[in-house]
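agent> step 3/5: call structure_predict on target 'Glycosyltransferase 61 catalytic domain-containing protein' (Polarella glacialis).
agent> reason: downstream docking stage needs a structural representation; sequence fetched in step 2, passing through unchanged.
tool.input:
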Amino acid sequence: MNANQLNEALPLWRSAQKRVDDPATLAWLQGRERWTRFGKVSMRRDKVYSQGQGNVTAALLLMAKQLEIYPQSPVLLHDRATAKVMVSELPEERGEQAVSQAIASFKEAQEAAFQAWQAGLWQRSRAAPNCGSLGVISDWPAWWSSDNKDKGAMVSLKSTDIGSFQSESYGPHGEFQDQGSYVARFNDVGLSGEDGIIVDEKHCGIFIASAGPFVNLARNLQLLQTWGDPPSPYADGPRYSWLDFERGRFPNHGSVEKPKVVERVASLVQFASTSFFHLLAELLSRLWILQKSEVLSDPALKLVVPQDPRKDDGFIVSALRFWKIQEDRVIWWPRNVGPDVQLQVKELFYADWRPPASPEKDGGHCPSPRSALLGVRQMLLTSFTRSEPLQDRRLLIFASRQGVPAGGVVAMRSRLASRESLLKGLRQVAEEAGLEFIEFSGVSSPEASAALFARARAVVGIHGGALTNMLFCREDADIFELGFATPLSGHYRHLGAALGLRTMLLPLKADDRGIGAAEVVLADMEAAIRSVRARLLPSHFGGSEGRTKTDAEL
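tool.output (status=ok):
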């Protein structure tokens, strides 16, 4: 259907409304009119947005028009939140407002999704008519210690008391708080959607782990479109239709009427499980916590693990080998599953934590506590690097982000303008500092990546998963991130602080494409190279006291 057909359809829908007396038919015709108006706005938005490479600020205005038509759509609310993240680096007040607006919209999306999910549970006869006291639960310790006697499916929550940094501040100004970790135990819950959301269908409860508001519930749950229009003009027809989030990719809008049932498992599945940053920093933290708290000591307990995108050569499989977790104990979670419960669990264990920073603060996007990250680091170094002191020449590594198109969409920040000029400058600095220059493309094995970054004296990289390899760096390594100052892209500033590494931001320019632009430009190429030189050759700048300070130190 094109824009002209939509324009022609509108007066016809309006005219038809004047010719009917039946309330059900009238409601259906009014819905068709709304849907047609929505289609017109959506076509304009898609053209302007251009898969994230267009004018995101202009797209936000059109999203507002979409929300005027369907104000309780969790899909639109989450889209708006994501777009707000993209523009949060823009200057003046737009950027500052965008951070708080993004978090608020993410939370609105989850609440709207809950209402639609609950209505769906009633229609599927999966919940009692009076259920609904639980809602969306993201602060598990607060929920467990509350006066509410009905804890739903959660039957215990125990602090792990592991690591030496619980309840301590860290970061240059103590801006991060390690509040320790815990293991929650649930009875009779489902694991739903690609992110394995923990759902208590009987009590209408959704337990969201540490990713909090960033989790997109609409892509993980079966939602009845209570925000939408009647799918039928007949009085005895359905009032709402089911959301087909994946648009025909799965049969029956992804519903699973009889999920597989298992007895006792621990799950590692989470938000963005197989994204490299989330895999190393979060998923392996959960595995480390489960191992150290001895939950996995029971050989009868199964472990639900997301399929490693690199299969036998990936970090997930390597970590399982390190802890001698046998293949027959693993239930592999597929990478592409529909938005419904895939596994019904009679007894579930899940490791989690309170985030070291709130979502709107710098580093608040899915941070793991320092105690867990240091444990993961030690495990990885023990598993993948040599025990003897390094004798090899130290490195200056440029971690490139050469994006491979996925579904025809070029990866964010995969092209750096004047890239060769930057590499030329970095090679010169490396030569002056007596370092070997290496360009890292991210295609190495876990062992090779670990060995490489263990030799790093400095890492320069564009904001992206490759920077997660700082987990292998020695404590004297300097990390230079080509990125953005918005708190919503502070992932690696927190990771560096947790690992005790010095980090510096080399700013990228922000424009109306936002922080997700495929092609990015350094704000000041010469200043960036000078900053790297000042860190690695402090004697050129008046000795060690003249080193460039971290952004947090300024």
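agent> step 4/5: record observation. Residues 124-226+235-245+258-353 form one domain.
agent> proceeding.
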